[in-house]
Design a protein that fits this description.
mainly beta; five-stranded mixed beta barrel; three-stranded antiparallel beta sheet; 1 helix; 13 strands; 5% helix; elongated
């Protein structure tokens, strides 16, 4: 193989360092250091459909591909940030996480774990469910337990005055 072909082949796949990550356009882009002191700007970051992230630039690494061996047509794939990686997972586990330790893990035994530093918000239609350090808030819809309304519109039978207990919710 001649030197020109060998150099072109070596340059097709590289490890790159990312800076200036932009997430405000149709595609996410970054500046990529493809060799010591050699930067390419506004390089597209290819993200798998249905998965999105905005990796912290400090310490971010990626695989950089030169499409067709053309150094002017680069794409970034498989972005990582080793210093922020969620590790020590059991074999078969899958997770999404951020740099602060918030995460959703699907464990091999079928358990789904959610850890949120501030709150967990779930919204479906007009119903909102929020778990925070203050407690649980539910707005919209109704709340039932075993088919019995325990929300803000339930009523009790057997109400008596004084220190006795009423019957459980009746509706």
């Amino acid at each position: 193989m001649d030197k020109e072909t060998a150099d072109k082949t070596r340059g097709m796949v590289r490890r790159g360092v990312l800076k200036n990550i932009k997430d405000d356009g149709q595609t996410q882009t970054a500046s990529v250091e493809v060799a010591e002191g050699v930067w390419r700007h506004d390089v597209e970051i290819m993200q798998p459909y249905g998965s999105a992230s905005h990796v912290p630039a400090d310490g971010s690494l990626a695989v950089v591909l030169a499409i067709g061996g053309d150094q002017g047509d680069l794409v970034v794939m498989n972005v990582s940030n080793p210093s922020k990686r969620l590790g020590k997972l059991p074999e078969g586990a899958v997770g999404n996480y951020n740099e602060h330790g918030d995460r959703v893990l699907v464990l091999p035994d079928g358990t789904v774990q959610v850890a949120a530093g501030t709150a967990l918000d779930v919204s479906v239609g007009g119903v909102n469910f929020r778990v925070s350090a203050e407690g649980v808030d539910i707005t919209g819809g109704h709340v039932r337990h075993n088919g019995v309304n325990i929300g803000d519109t339930h009523f009790h039978g057997g109400v008596v005055h004084g220190s006795d207990f009423s019957d459980p919710p009746a509706n």
